[in-house]
Amino acid sequence: MLVNKTNKNIKVTYTYKLESSLCPSANTTQAIIVTVEGAPQITNIDEAPKLHCSGTEYTFNPTYDYITGSTVAIEWERQPNAHIEGSSSGSGRGSIRETLTNKTDAPVQVSYKMKISRSGCADDYTLYDINVTVYPEPKWTQQSTPLDICSGE
Description:
The chain is 0% helix and 44% strand. The protein contains no helices and eleven strands. The strands form four sheets. It has a five-stranded mixed sheet, with no helix packed on it. Strands 1-2 form a two-stranded antiparallel sheet. The protein is rod-shaped.
């Protein structure tokens, strides 16, 4: 199996030497050239937001680099997390767009897997991890003792 993990086509040359003990003058060498197509790659994965405020829409629009004329599919899945309101996990195709609400008073880590694949080739894909810290919504806390304020302050 030939695997090309770049986004460019690579040519591989196989050279065969054909020999005959009965007819040495018929010995010959032949080459077969195979093109291994490049794997699609997300080019802006490092730009995926890593910090997020609870209760707002998280968005990441992936861009990719791949050979012209080929069709790619982008799929994502959010790993289960009981501290995120709504569904405990999520999934979709293309861009990530979903509201993340942190149900706790502390930052929560949310993990996504994003897969880009070439249509028609099930084993030709690249997998990425996106980790996002979702900060809780600010909460008002009342002071337990009243404050003395002078007139005019």
